[in-house]
Write a structure and sequence with these properties.
single chain, alpha+beta, Dna Ligase, domain 1, D-amino Acid Aminotransferase, Chain A, domain 1, 3 domains, five-stranded parallel beta sheet, 22 strands, globular
Amino acid sequence: MFDKILIANRGEIALRVIRCAREMGIRSVAVHSTADADAMHVRMADESVCIGPPASPQSYLSVPSIMAACEITGADAIHPGYGFLSENAGFVQAVQDHGLTFIGPTADHIRIMGDKITAKDTMKALGVPCVPGSDGGVPDLEAAKAISAEIGYPVIVKATAGGGGRGMKVAQTADDIEDAFRTARAEAKAAFGNDECYIEKYLTTPRHIEIQVFGDGKGKAVHLGERDCSLQRRHQKVFEEAPGPCITPQERAEIGRICADAVAKINYIGAGTIEFLYENGEFYFIEMNTRLQVEHPVTESIFGVDLVREQIRVAAGLPLSFSQDDLQINGHAIEVRINAEALPDFAPRPGKITHFHAPGGLGVRMDSALYDGYSIPPYYDSLIAKLIVHGRDRDEAIRRLDRALSELIVDGVDTTIPLFDLLVQEPDILTGDYSIHWLEKWLEKTFRKS
């Protein structure tokens, strides 16, 4: 087992890993920018190293700075958290070249799944169902028109190197394809330095269902059911739950088996998430995230496992501590992402926390690095907390979420807490009847026309 782990991240996820390491008897090293000198993860770690100024490229994205911090502290492994360098194959290679262990998948697996076309081709070859679409990048407008006509409208044009909703445009009819194709390519070039795009069938009312998988790197893998992440704004998740309210036990078992078999065949190691669009009982692969997900706590809640602990174990060469037969769903869990943002425009609102009180009680978990007097810096993602509730069933989980929200206090900055106060009263949310388009339509109706 490792003696010391460096966490190449910040905020609540860094704190999450530090807590797990301490329970395992492993010393932790926090890295931080000058803007995060007083952050909770810095205070809680056994050691800390300043790695640069506030700007991410000069601190949390600086591979030389992070490797230097490992050298200084004698850390023998690195946990990347999520975001930043967590899916950077070059970083993984640098870690390995320095004789250290990366707590996550191999550089090759990150490269394969980081390119959406290669990922789709790989998954298709492994028997994972995929959305009908182009075989690779689309070279020009004429090819885009031909492929779209063959697939059938509506279609969506996506950047090969895309993410976060950028480089994605929908063409409802043949009249729209030229504008969608040109705009998606321009956005992709500006955002990722690569204008290659591909085309897929656009599903009209799908849900976003993701399967949590875990591999030991030696040909063995399991799945931990699904999460429904359909409540999204601009392709960003805001509300996640497990199990999915629309997925049957038979569907769960079948798609879970397919995903676990797929990652086992490629000797995948660690946590991964295979994401699908789901409509009319069918699953369509969209991408694989080769890291821990922001919403991993809901899976932990219903299965009673610690995914971070398992990441550390398999990275150290130990076998999985559970089998597929051991994984039985217990109840229902929901996570809401609380951002320092002002409604209705979701504009970031960094600032000083004058008072913070986390809710408690049975089945309530709060993953946050906030504290009274903490100043949220303006340089990073606006996510400041994750509220997770667990109940015996979905109804109890929603009631528990409503209660926990009423106890939660975050004063000093605007937050998205009022959004969830409203959502837990909505009939469609109470019944689980929503798709990936539901939230944006509801926001338009609720805020724009009020």
